Structure formats: C-alpha cells, structure tokens
Amino acid sequence: MANNLKWYQKHFLWRRLRINRKYKDRLFRFLFRDKKDLLELYNAVNGSAYSNADDLEIVTLEDAIFMKMKNDLSFIIANQLNLYEHQSTYSPNMPLRGLLYFSRQYEGIVAQHKDQLYSSKLIKLPTPEYVIFYNGKQEQADRGELFLSDAFETGRGSGCLECKAVFFNINRGHNQELLEKCRRLWEYSEFIAEVNENLDRNMSLKAAIMKAVDCCIQKGILEELLRKNQAEVLHMLLTEYDEKAHMRGIYKEGEEAGYQKGYSKGEEDGYRKGESELLLKQVRQKLERGKSIPVIAEELETEVAVIEKIAERINRNE
User: Fold this and answer.
1) Domain residue limits at 133
2) Residues 29, 23: contact at Cβ < 8 Å?
C-alpha cells in the first residue's frame, strides 16, 4: 500500500498544480480535513474497517478555478480514487462534474507515461468512486444513483462513456444507519438542520448561524470545533449562501437571455407577467405559513432581494 501511495504522489497532477491561496474552504470540507475523520466517513460509506489513517492520501485539486468548480474532497485508499462532494442544491449534472474531475486527475498520470500510451504495456489507474452527500431543501430519497448516460440523447447505458455518482441524503431523519456510523457526518447534519430551523423562524442568516452554533455547543455537537472556530464557520456558511444566491442570479440571467432570443417582445412580456403573478402567489402562500424570507428564496431558487421586494408589495396590499 505504501508503495502505491508513493507512486500516486509522484505522478498525480495535483502535485504539479499551483495552489490558489485565495481558495475558501466549504464547511463540509473543513469538517473532514483531518484524515481520521475522512477515514471514518469512508468506512461508513463502504462498510469497511480501515484503522490506519496513513493508508489514506488526500489528493483534492486545490485550484479554485479548476473547471470553474470547487471540489470538496478527493483521496486515494485501497487503489481507489474517491471523490466526495457535498451538495445543498440537487443537480442531475453531477456525473458530468465527476467525469471532468476524474479526467483531469488521469491526465496527470498520462502526462508521466507519454511513451507508453500507445504501447502494449497497460497503464494502471486507480478505480474511481464518486459519492455525493446532499442536505438541500428539495425532497429526495435516502439513496440514489446518478448516471452520466442519462444526459445522452439515447439514454442510460448507451454510448461508450459512463460515470456513476452514488447519492446520499444526509438531512435530519434520513440515512440514520449511515449517520450513526460516522459521528462527524451526523454532527454536520444536525448543525445544518439547526440553521435551517432558525431560518424558518424568520431569523436573519447570520443570527440563524450564531444561534445554531450556541445550541450545538450546548448539546455537544461539533463542540470543540465550534468553540475554536466560530468566526471561521460563520464566514464559510455566509460565503456558501452568497455563492448559491449568486449562481441562481446567473441562472436567471441566462434564462432571461434565452427568452429574449426565443420569443417576440409581446410574447415575452406576457410570459413575464404570468411568471410575476405566479411568484407573487407563491411568496404570499409561504409567508402565510410563517416561513422566513431567506427560506422562501432558497425554496423558490430566487435571490433574497427579489423576495424582499415582493414581500413589501404584499405588506402594502398591492
């Protein structure tokens, strides 16, 4: 095992990348930065019993501009190249992300074997394994599988390429057996659940996070980490929420550009009016149920500023 690790360390592309020091950790990655915690997570997912953290080698691509994507955790163990990603917004495109990621890592190996690529000698590759941990607001099953070939016009199982992602729902009340096997994953699930409950009580995002920190410390959930890193945890979560809002804004801009190209101005105006009325109705219903503006924005995948303006109109009875 030690020899394999040394070989991968020498040949993998990640060793040759210039690290972008401006990269900001996501909370999920921050929680599993220690090899012992990451090994416990691997054992929980795979039903294995590895006990030596040195058997695991972290090979996460650190460059934040890699494919304009941030990768959470990647590591080698038992001749497997594992990619673990956390997602708070469900996306069927995760297998494509995985394909691009693994391709980039394999490119590093091939770069060291240029003379052998067309020879009769087989270039050995670590087996790719892709796992997604989901804790968003959309209802999802406890476990699922996503396939790259679902995106092909000819459907799943067609074509010469495939990338499978195993999907785990780690929201409170889901996958209890998995969460019980990995305390840190359970603690993460509970902490995020506390934040979301506070948002449902109409708290601001910052207040919701700080109250969740205090509550979890009292309950012994992530206690030591939260006591030592409160400011860092707050910054990471605020950044993550800001990034999600920003990406939704980009998506909306792209949608609007598409409608402008596809419809005449009259048709577009009619669509926008209908869309506006539907959004107004949805926001009113959710406000009547006592949901906070940040939660409504998350559920409707709309920027908080837009929901705030609609809420003001509702309060003025417009």
Assistant:
1) 2-181
2) no
Shared domain check, 155 and 252: no
Given 181, 211, 228, the domain boundary residue is 181
Please return the burial class of 115, using the count of CB atoms within 10 Å of its CB with bins 0-12, 13-18 and 19+. Answer: exposed
Through-space distance between the first and last CA atoms of the chain, rounded to whole angstroms: 68
- Residues 116, 32, single domain; the answer is yes
| Contact call for residues 111 and 103 (beta carbons, < 8 A) | no
| Closest C-alpha to 189, from 315, 91, 88 | 88
The larger pLDDT score, comparing residue 230 to residue 185, is at 185
**Phi-psi domain of 67 (left: phi exceeds 0; alpha: psi -120 through 50; beta: other):** left
Question: How many domains would you assign to the chain?
Answer: 2
Contact (CB, 8 A) for 57 and 63: no
Contacts of 56 (CB under 8 A, 6+ apart): 35, 38, 39, 42, 50, 75, 76, 77
**Global confidence as pTM:** 0.69
DSSP 289: T
The string of pLDDT tens digits covering residues 48-61 is: 999 999 999 998 87
The confidence band for 311, taking pLDDT boundaries of 50, 70 and 90, is confident
Q: What is the dihedral of CA 241, 243, 244, 247, to 10 degrees?
A: 160
Q: Are 215 and 191 in contact (CB under 8 A)?
A: no
Does residue 221 lie in a domain region? Answer: no
The alpha carbon dihedral of 136, 142, 148, 150 has a sign of negative
Domain end call among 181, 200, 235? 181
Is residue 214 situated within a structural domain?
Answer: no
How confident is the model over 111-147, as pLDDT tens digits? 877 767 788 888 889 999 999 999 988 899 999 999 9
Q: How far apart are CA 110 and CA 167, in angstroms?
A: 29
